[in-house]
Amino acid sequence: MIESVLTEINKHVSLSEAEAERVTQAFKVKKVRRNQFLVQPPDVAQQEHFVVKGCLVEYYLDDNGTQRALAFAAENSWMTDLQSFLTTEDSKYYVEALEDGEVLTIRKDVLDKLLLDIPLLNIYFRILYQNAIVAQKERLLNILSSKTDEHYLKFRQKYPHLENRVPQYWIASYLGVTPEFLSRVKSRSLR
Amino acid sequence: MIESVLTEINKHVSLSEAEAERVTQAFKVKKVRRNQFLVQPPDVAQQEHFVVKGCLVEYYLDDNGTQRALAFAAENSWMTDLQSFLTTEDSKYYVEALEDGEVLTIRKDVLDKLLLDIPLLNIYFRILYQNAIVAQKERLLNILSSKTDEHYLKFRQKYPHLENRVPQYWIASYLGVTPEFLSRVKSRSLR
DNA sequence: CGCGACGTTGATTTGCCTCAACGATTGTGG
DNA sequence: CCACAATCGTTGAGGCAAATCAACGTCGCG
Fold first, then answer.
1. For testing the chain B interface, which of A117, A133, A134, A178 should be mutated: the one with the most B CBs within 10 Å?
2. Residues of A in contact with B82 (CB under 8 A)
3. Residue A163 burial (CB < 10 Å; 0-12/13-18/19+)?
């Protein structure tokens, strides 16, 4: 279980045995249940989470009480309220489990120490963040310039199995439309 | 001129004299004119640009030929098509100068070498990218959940002087609305 | 001066939302 | 094991926000 994060890291950099060992020890395994909060505003996000099994959603609760999904994280993805985690400000974004599952957690002070001691890890996270920026830009573009129909189809391509795992209203939220409208879009584009 | 990038980097990490010297030599000064492309699809983005003076815009040209502004970069900001720059894929995003100005450029192979030789630079870019992710998330949220009126006001707060420097239709594009509609929003919210 | 780029304004259309009602499914307690 | 409620997706009617299309005024510039 805990090796999965090493596998992920070693896709981008090559840690030594000793470094791998240190990384392994820095994480703790945590079981999560459906609907459980991993970050709940206004608590400060204490940990970064690496999903071993299950599925998380990050969302914002706007003034009307509407949930706005910002990102999903399934197996082998990282997730937290990055802003709160980095700055120790109050969190603004919820992170919630959509399924029972298992995550690896690491506290900020522990991660900071790791980053100081293991230069390769800085490279790993730099690459991780670079990729995140690229992905977010793609997402922004889809929201700005795709019609909902195309946007929905792109979503299905990008997250092939997610649609069967998470409720439709989360997907609607992610796409930036109401559940009712997504329902109409689906019935329309399946024929 | 060229020290401005050092000033920026030293806000987050402390380079030694020798390191600073190496960094300085890695950049080249480039004058840019209004409407000049710094990245033009499908050319691969060869350089990362640091704006010393002037203002750049990154945008996507969608299937209808509509320009979709993704980001602006004024003084002391970085800009390129990051995806193309990192992967050497064909670029998808234009980077264009909105004003006459001056940028510092660094080629990918040169930057890669710097990153290998100067661990602190990895830290700097990791932090830079972290902040970019946080900012992009904020932007995504504004598009998803703000009415155009608020969104416009937030934009003005965030980029106080940019409005006077760039044409309104770029701002409309950035906000995700038509120039006509932005015009109405402005006349409406100024009274 | 005259042209092109830019911003504004008006009339009409449309994509998406809101509100409400209705099945289908799930889960829960008696 | 069944009754009941809660959750979720679908469908319909009506309304609003923003797009589209088009015309016009203004400014800067060759």
1. A133
2. 130, 133-134, 137
3. middle
Residues in chain B within 8 Å Cβ distance of A77:
none
CA nearest to A85, candidates B130, B9, B122, B126:
B130
Counted residue by residue, chain A has a size of 191
Of A64 and A185, the one with more pLDDT: A185
Q: Which residues touch strand D (CB under 7 A)?
A: A 167-169, 179-180, 182-184, 186-187; B 147-148, 176-178, 180-181
Place of tokens 């002070």: A109
Q: What does the pLDDT read at residue A125?
A: 92
Q: How far is the CA of B167 from the C1' of D27 (A)?
A: 14
pLDDT at residue B145 in the model: 82
B126-136 residue pLDDT tens: 899 999 999 99
Q: Where are the beta strands (DSSP E) in B24-100?
A: 28-32, 37-39, 47-53, 56-61, 67-73, 78-79, 93-97
Residues of chain B found within 8 Å of residue A133, distances taken between Cβ atoms: 82, 129, 132-133, 136
Contact in structure between A103 and B103 (CB atoms under 8 Å)? no
Ranges of H-type helices in B27-107: 82-87
Cα separations (Å) of A62 from A40, A68, A93? 14, 7, 10
Using alpha carbons, select from B91, B52, B64 the residue that is nearest to residue A137.
B91
- What's the pLDDT tens digit per position in A58-76? 999 988 889 999 999 999 9
pLDDT tens-digit map of A74-119: 999 999 999 999 999 999 999 999 999 999 999 999 999 999 999 9
A47-53, strands of its sheet edge to edge: A28-32, A101-107, A47-53, A78-79
Using 50, 70 and 90 to split pLDDT, how confident is the model at A42? very high
Residue A52: is its pLDDT beyond 70? yes
Give strand D nucleotides closer than 7 A to any protein Cβ: 8-13, 17-22
